[in-house]
TrEMBL record:
InterPro entries: ClpP/crotonase-like_dom_sf, Enoyl-CoA_hyd/isom_CS, Enoyl-CoA_hydra/iso, Enoyl-CoA_hydra_C. This is enoyl-CoA hydratase. Could possibly oxidize fatty acids using specific components. It is an enzyme of class 4 (lyase). It comes from the Bacteria. Keywords: Fatty acid metabolism, Lipid metabolism, Lyase. GO terms for biological process: fatty acid beta-oxidation. Belongs to the enoyl-CoA hydratase/isomerase family. Its EC number is 4.2.1.17. It catalyses: a 4-saturated-(3S)-3-hydroxyacyl-CoA = a (3E)-enoyl-CoA + H2O; a (3S)-3-hydroxyacyl-CoA = a (2E)-enoyl-CoA + H2O.
């Protein structure tokens, strides 16, 4: 399917979604989310897809919500149109999404990357929550997710001053999982995604769900949830096959992938 604001392709069991509004540095418009959410719906339903990579351009993953679209809004139109809420679809995806970030990931761009399951950054990546410079504040989860990633002090610094964080600081702070040279970004992210997509899909999805639980609940409830989900994996053929393959010193042949 052709989209106006994104490009999609599949390589094996991995789907690659590229934000594609180059003239606006991939500013995140409402139309872009119509496309992105439709693509996620289709990959979620596609049994041949096990992992998704979301990326932008060399210059910008995304420079934030579309300021030109938002400028005329009033609080009434923001409320009535439920501005930003459609973005949350990304964080509810059940299959994993890796954000591959080069260049600017600012405002909603940083927030979108943080809605993904983890972030692989190019050495050119720059993260920031500059909404304060526009007389507003992060509105797509930035005050909550950035604080959980990097802690209160750095989150306050970033959100109150609007300063950018480079890739090295982002890795040091736990915002990104690894840094790679810019020209290797997408290939590296696709390789990582292919590795995940080759695992047993129920195990992958249950791990994702369980790690996400850590943000939503207490330690004891989270551990209890993890234990129940872990027990349920013993109902899968892939548990039996994965453990037998280890004993046989061979690669597992997972059925559910
Ligand atoms: N919305 C709409 N258009 C944007 C945009 C955005 N967030 N960011 C960049 N653009 C447009 C520019 O207006 C410009 O368009 P024209 O050529 O038509 O003038 C084009 O993209 C290129 O941008 P620049 O000329 O500014 O490029 P630059 O290299 O000089 O600067 C930049 C790059 C530092 C990223 C700068 O574009 C910038 O500061 N962008 C805005 C960043 C920002 O404030 N993001 C937060 C948005 S609010 C938000 O996201 C709310 C939320 O939490 C949900």
């Amino acid at each position: 399917m052709a989209y106006e604001n994104i490009l999609v392709e599949t390589r094996g069991r991995v789907a690659l979604i590229t934000l594609n509004r180059p003239k606006a540095l991939n500013a995140l418009s409402s139309g872009l989310f119509v496309d992105l959410n439709a693509a996620l719906d289709s990959f979620e339903a596609d049994e041949n897809i096990g992992c998704i990579v979301l990326t932008g351009s060399e210059k910008a993953f995304a420079a934030g919500a579309d300021i030109k679209e938002m400028q005329p809004y009033t609080s009434v139109t923001a409320y009535l149109t439920d501005l930003i809420t459609p973005w949350e679809r990304v964080s509810r995806n059940r299959k994993p999404i890796i954000a591959a970030v080069a260049g600017y990931a600012l405002g909603g761009g940083c927030e979108l990357a943080m809605m993904c399951d983890f972030i692989i950054a190019a050495d050119t990546a720059k993260f920031g929550q500059p909404e304060i410079n526009l007389g507003v504040m992060p509105g797509a989860g930035g005050t909550q997710r950035l604080t959980r990633f990097v802690g209160k002090s750095k989150a306050m610094d970033m959100c109150l001053t609007g300063r950018m964080m480079d890739a090295a600081e982002a890795e040091r702070s736990g915002l990104v999982s690894r840094i790679v040279p810019a020209d290797e970004l997408v290939d590296t992210a696709m390789d990582v995604a292919a590795k995940i997509a080759d695992m047993s899909l129920p195990a992958v999805m249950m791990i994702k769900e369980s790690v996400d639980r850590a943000y939503e609940t207490t330690m004891s409830e989270g551990v209890r949830f993890e234990r129940r989900v872990f027990h349920s994996l013993f109902a899968t053929e892939d548990q039996s096959e994965g453990m037998q393959a280890f004993i046989d010193k061979r690669s597992p042949n997972f059925r559910n992938r």
